[in-house]
Predict the 3D structure of the following.
Amino acid sequence: MRILVCVKRVPLTGGKMVLTADEQALETRHLGFTISPHEECGVEEAVRLVEAHGGEVTVLTLGPPEAEEQVRDSLANGGDRGVHLVTDGSEWDPQATAAAIVEAVRTEEADGGGFDLVVFGNESADSGNYQVGIRVAYALGRPVATGVKGLSVADGRARCEQEVPGGRDVYDLPLPAVVSVLEGINLPRYPSVPAKLRARSKPVASSTPERPAARLEKLRLVVPPGQGKQAEILGNGAGAAPRVVELMREIGVA
Amino acid sequence: MAVLALVEPSEELSFQALALARDLGGPLHALAFDDSELGAYGVETVHVAELEAYAPAAWAACLQGLIDKLQPTAVVAAGTNRGNEVLSHLAARLDLPFAANCIAVGDDGAVTRVRWGGSLLEEARIHADMKIVSVAPHMVEATTVNGGSAVVEQMDVAVDEADLVARVVEHTETPSAGVSLSEAKVVVSGGRGVGSADGFGILEELAGLLNAAVGCSRVVTMAGWRPHTDQVGQTGTKVAPDLYIACGISGATQHIAGCKGAKKILAINSDAEAAIFAHADYAVVGDLAEVVPAITAELRKARS
Ligand SMILES: Cc1cc2nc3c(=O)[nH]c(=O)nc-3n(C[C@H](O)[C@H](O)[C@H](O)COP(=O)(O)OP(=O)(O)OC[C@H]3O[C@@H](n4cnc5c(N)ncnc54)[C@H](O)[C@@H]3O)c2cc1C
Ligand SMILES: Nc1ncnc2c1ncn2[C@@H]1O[C@H](COP(=O)(O)O)[C@@H](O)[C@H]1O
């Protein structure tokens, strides 16, 4: 099987959201970077499928030069090769992102053969547009299932399970197909030191697509109210227990 | 100029979407799949489509049929899994922008939408004549109008085979076990500070006394101490209990995104500087391995 997984570099924000002075982005000077847990699980799922059926996992990102770090992290977790669509770090709206990914898929497929599966996170960690995977599926003319929490492939079909209130819904898609997955579909592995070293020498192809004008245009970011409360201290250590129980009674839960 | 809304079967969040849709002005039309009474929510015409199984592309095709007829200024749905999925299909079919999880829609395509699972807001502009938006859950009130009654029209649905390729072909019921995390009145939640899978024993004991559900942070699920179904947060479950007790959880924004719907948050943390205290209503500074059993003992004492 040939599988493509799309991952997006995002800042690993800590206990609060801090914006840059121009309110266009998060202040990331003191932050590390990562990808969405959904996407981590997407990489893991693709690697497991290839371990079971043979084949190759390609990891793609659209992002600034530094996003190569996230591609390499994914290669350390079992990906075979990377595709880096390099940007200047400015925001790409979901339509532009999808169009660039579609372009890259076409190029990759012309060179190396078709992808049986293109895997997305259900939503990106930062912008949460819930749509890039579906747009890519339409452009490629392939069926798509979202919110996937269980995936198995047999006889040229993908069985996709979704959690819904009270149970699971099942979709049965003919390959090639597109899926977007949720954290919890698997428990991703931690990369070993040798795997990290090997990832350094895996191939990553890069190209620089043109950014079209945004049709969903970010104007400014705002930190919602509620951040920066001051908790009332009920006490220290075990001695606080009576006050806690009193509080539970006041709230009506004890 | 009309506004078109998608109403999902037995989905309360659709009523919140209708409230936002009504505020956009113009006759409100709804696409629905059963004959629920929507007049009270300000809907003038309900277009009822009958489909055998859920198929997102088929739902989008139904919306498309109504758009051709009504030429609406906006298409609105709840920011649920299905709402966001169907509107993404619609936007892809029409090659139009789609703004997911909005909390406000203004003039000229101005929207305010949530990012990072609600930890950040974005003011954005949709560049298109017809605005496609979903409404972030629990951010808009589901208000009703007096004496509204809706005209119901059965839709003639002729779905293309291609739009049924991805459809629900099977549904399995999972028997529910214990108090559900998303509906519990109290959640006792543990983070890295709990130390191990066994460490959750004292949280389970307290939860048992309070008829509470046990939750956890992502560090805990990644360590394999608890299943992902217990994870609270941006990529886990969103909870809204009367009381959320966070034990040994630092208060990362992605965790808070899942518990800020709680009426009250009590944080137990050994670090007096922990970020969780800036999101909590009440704090106990101390070792949870001592504080939690002490609360359990105190509760038992108070009850006997
Ligand atoms: C896109 C994205 C999505 C994410 N989604 C989620 C999500 O859904 N849910 C989630 O939880 N996280 C999520 N995370 C991870 C999140 O950023 C944090 O890493 C995680 O929440 C931290 O878990 P923690 O608080 O248990 O651990 P830590 O941050 O390590 O905090 C442990 C805390 O325990 C305290 N402590 C230690 N020992 C004791 C003791 N004996 N008694 C009392 N206190 C003690 C410490 O003082 C510390 O505050 C996400 C991250 C990203 C990037
Ligand atoms: N810049 C990007 N690079 C690679 N993949 C992306 C990018 N943006 C979004 N995606 C993929 O599309 C999914 C859905 O994103 P979104 O529609 O923004 O919520 C993400 O989880 C990723 O798998």
Summary: Residues 94-112 of chain A form the longest helix (19 residues). Chain A touches chain B through 84 residues (CB under 8 Å). The first strand of chain A starts at residue 2 and ends at 6. The mean pLDDT of chain A is 96.
